[in-house]
């Protein structure tokens, strides 16, 4: 029966591809960092379940990059396992969540940290040997950056960069403060600001990608397992879909050759598109690429800072 609709679909494709500003080719995958700690976050199990439910409702497969330090040691391992049980990939985000760009943290210590987390997560059915660098920092020196790249190549590991970075962790902190104070109206307004922030950062990195790569890649966005995303993820997905984004799995998105590139920047890291732009000496790149300082003024103007 589907062939009956084919001519119309072909017509739509012809019309849309003729437009230079066609946004509908944009694809996006969701990745989540850290994991919940049931000991310090009494609602950890509930928030974790909300995230998984939103993904399931929208039939999305994501990747979780847990860090043992953010799970309270092994306290949150069961919650990590629930992601794997639902078919989401689980990667590695180190044991201690320390930055490779910290001059006091050596390459050898970083490798030991990655191996410790690998031991904790590698038996999960959907474990994938990909590392999400803490803070997206890939080293403060060429020796550390390249030394770890050699380690990954020798150990069957891949880096799991993001193309779209944002400050969800900051919005979640503000959101949580209003929820805690019982001000659900302000919490809801923060949520709306947050969704606009994600769409805006996605548009920015999409534009930067077109300048750097000459094409629109399969994007991977960095989000965190936090209270705000538990409350907002379904709305976030709906907002991206409404803007013409197609949601894909992280597994599919990481097939994009973009993610195998090794940008030559120091300190190394940030969004891989940002890093490639930096390596090309593209002007007007702020550093850090994303931070709370960029978000605070608009929340302050809106009277939403607690
Ligand atoms: Zn993290």
Automatic annotation (TrEMBL):
tRNA-binding found in the keyword field: no
Organism superkingdom: Bacteria
Molecular-function GO terms, alphabetical: hydrolase activity, acting on carbon-nitrogen (but not peptide) bonds; metal ion binding
Name of protein: NodB homology domain-containing protein
One GO process term, biological-process aspect: carbohydrate metabolic process
Organismal lineage: Bacteria, Pseudomonadati, Pseudomonadota, Betaproteobacteria, Burkholderiales
KW Flavoprotein (keyword) present: no
Keywords, alphabetical: Hydrolase, Metal-binding, Signal
Pfam families referenced in this protein's UniProt entry, alphabetically: Polysacc_deac_1
NodB homology domain span: 26-248
Endpoints of the signal sequence: 1-25
InterPro entries: Glyco_hydro/deAcase_b/a-brl, NODB_dom, Polysacc_deacetylase_ArnD
Cellular-component GO terms for this entry: membrane
């Amino acid at each position: 029966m589907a062939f009956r609709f084919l001519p119309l679909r072909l017509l739509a494709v012809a019309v849309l591809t003729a437009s230079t500003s066609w946004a509908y080719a944009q694809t996006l995958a969701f990745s989540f960092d850290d994991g919940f700690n049931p000991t310090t976050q009494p609602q950890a199990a509930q928030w974790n379940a909300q995230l998984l439910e939103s993904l399931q409702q929208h039939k999305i497969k994501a990747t979780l990059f847990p860090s043992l330090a953010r799970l309270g040691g092994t306290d949150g391992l069961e919650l990590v396992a629930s992601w794997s049980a639902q078919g989401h990939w689980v990667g590695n985000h180190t044991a201690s969540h320390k930055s490779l760009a910290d001059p006091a943290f050596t390459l050898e210590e970083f490798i030991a940290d990655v191996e410790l987390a690998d031991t904790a997560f590698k038996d999960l059915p959907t474990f994938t040997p990909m590392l999400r660098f803490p803070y997206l920092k890939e080293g403060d020196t060429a020796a550390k950056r390249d030394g770890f790249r050699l380690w990954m190549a020798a150990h069957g590991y891949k880096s799991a960069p993001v193309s779209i970075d944002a400050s969800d962790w900051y919005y979640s902190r503000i959101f949580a403060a209003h929820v805690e104070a019982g001000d659900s109206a302000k919490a809801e307004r923060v949520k709306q600001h947050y969704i606009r922030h994600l769409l805006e950062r996605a548009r920015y990195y999409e534009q930067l990608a077109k300048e750097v790569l000459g094409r629109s890649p399969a994007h991977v966005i960095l989000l965190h397992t936090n209270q705000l995303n538990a409350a907002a993820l379904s709305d976030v997905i709906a907002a991206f879909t409404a803007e013409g984004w197609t949601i894909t799995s992280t597994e599919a998105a990481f097939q994009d050759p973009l993610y195998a590139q090794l940008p030559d920047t120091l300190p190394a890291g940030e969004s891989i598109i940002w890093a490639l732009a930096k390596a090309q000496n593209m002007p007007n790149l702020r550093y850090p690429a994303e931070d709370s300082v960029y978000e605070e003024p608009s929340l302050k103007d809106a009277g939403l800072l607690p």
